[in-house]
Design brief:
It is a single chain. By secondary structure, this protein is mostly helical. The chain contains six helices and no strands.
Length: about 130
Amino acid sequence: MQPLSRTMTLAFHMTLNMGLIGLLFAPLLQAQEYPADLTRGKAVYQRNCQACHGVGGWGDGPDANTLKVAPANFHRFPSFLKSDEELLRTIEHGVVFSPMHAWRGQLTDGEMQDVVAYIRLLAQAAR
């Protein structure tokens, strides 16, 4: 058997390393391709968000009047302009000095993505 050339050995090692890197990042890629489940998003919203943000996402839930900082109205232009990533980050980490607390650890990544999709649906419904 002939030994592999230096170029072939280097190519083999690079291919192997890229494959290992791909395996490490595969779960992250799948999370980005996660198809939204609007039914589950609605259930998560009703259970965790509706009391402050309201049934239609107008920021008029039954608990809204008791809050020192008004909850987001998803139909207002600033909320509508936020990217899905910004909404996801807000749900995940909360907002400092506001009643919006972090949901990381209480909701799964999938549930947070589903509720973002449902919030988008609420915002579109009134337009």
